[in-house]
Amino acid sequence: MLILLQRDEVAVIDRKAPPALITARQLIDMAQHRGVDFLSDRIFERRDGRLVTVTE
What we know:
Layout: E1 2-6, E2 9-12, H1 20-34, E3 43-47, E4 50-53
Antiparallel strand pairs: 1-2, 1-3, 3-4
């Protein structure tokens, strides 16, 4: 999964890890608390060669 925090900050999380979605959401919440100006607050993953939004 990918999180696009800022232009120069991307987080990559292994979808196979049991708490992956929780970890991704926590990273977004922590960054928002710090006042990070997000490119997107959505979580993405690659499926069939395309980036799609992860539904929680």
